[in-house]
Amino acid sequence: MTQPRLAKQTDHGRMYARSIGAAATVPSITTVIGRAAVDLGGWHGWLAAQAVVEDDRLAGSLGSPSRLRTVAREAAGAAERYRDQAALRGDRVHDYCEQVALRTMGLPHDVDRARKTLVEHREEAYVVRFDEWWDLYSPEPLGAEVTVWNHSVGYAGTLDLVARIAGKVCLIDYKTKATERNGRVKALDPKVVTQLVAGLKAEEQLVDAQSGEWEPWKYGDADLLLGVAVGPTEVVAQQAVPEVLEAHWHKFCALHRVWTHETRLAATPTQLRPVPPPPVRAETGGLD
Q1: Euclidean distance between CA atoms 122 and 118, whole angstroms
Q2: Model confidence over 93-106: pLDDT tens digits?
Q3: Strands of 224-230's sheet in order across
Q4: What is the H or E stretch that residue 11 is in?
Q5: Segment Disordered: which positions (predicted)?
Q6: Which pTM value belongs to this model?
Q7: Is residue 97 situated within a structural domain?
Q8: Where are the alpha helices (DSSP H) in the chain?
Q9: Which of 21, 36, 59, 268, by CA, is between 20 and 30 Å from 239?
Q10: pLDDT given at position 1
């Protein structure tokens, strides 16, 4: 599930509480990582231009400034629509992945419902490819949608899957990806390593959300951190290179400090004030 039970959306991003009904006190891992600057200007512009070209009303709008403005106005929101659609598709795919893990663990699940939802959205290819990957890698799930907490730095998050694969304990994060023109799934962003390292550095894991019961984190010495790109043509698992983990951890801690200071500054809306000109000094007479 993309919105864990203890996560709440706030003005400062997604925040986590210690139990259901309690105040959210720490940012999520993804909220912290989101403080890193990303230049999406070119991507936004390309999607807007593409939306104009593909708009059926374009030909009939030529010569009409008001109609052209309507086409342009709707095209300007193309990036946001694409983002929202991708997020909903990601929710559906993650839900199916979680239900498969629960079924494998012998826990209550709803695989059929999750599969049906994807089929209804013409996304059955994700089901087929994920099932192939699951059979090929044969993961033994140790926990699905595992919520973790770090007190020392001050953050929480939810790991998609903790599983043993070929005898190795793996922390796994799924990323729903589209497919390139060559049929290969699009590459994972390196920030998935930052996300997985933050999970690895957790100190507690959730036992019961209702009562707020937690226990020490069991998998801080996991063998592998895996980003798994789930696409309609293939599923590709990639390991975080051990040599870069420390750097990613320091980066995450730095981004957490940025989030902390931004949050404090947001509580003080007036951060600049007008400065009046200095008083006019009386002119002094010179020597005759």
Answers
A1: 6
A2: 999 999 999 999 99
A3: 213-216, 204-208, 140-150, 155-165, 168-176, 224-230, 235-239
A4: none
A5: 269-288
A6: 0.82
A7: yes
A8: 29-33, 41-54, 58-61, 65-76, 78-104, 111-120, 124-137, 191-200, 245-266
A9: 36
A10: 42
Going along 133-223, which residue ranges are E strands?
A: 140-150, 155-165, 168-176, 204-208, 213-216
CB 227 within 8 A of CB 196: yes
For residue 286, is it within any domain? no
Element containing residue 56 per DSSP (H, E):
none
Radius of gyration of the chain (CA): 25
Cβ neighbors of 144 (< 8 A, separation 6 or more) are 98, 101, 102, 105, 160, 161, 162
Segments forming the whole domain that contains residue 225: 7-266
Domain presence at residue 284: no
pLDDT at 63: 63
Q: What domain count does the chain have? A: 1
Q: What is the mean pLDDT of the chain?
A: 88
Do 4 and 147 contact (CB within 8 A), yes or no?
Answer: yes
Tell me, yes or no, whether 158 lies in a domain.
yes
- Match 């951060």 to its residue by tokens: 271
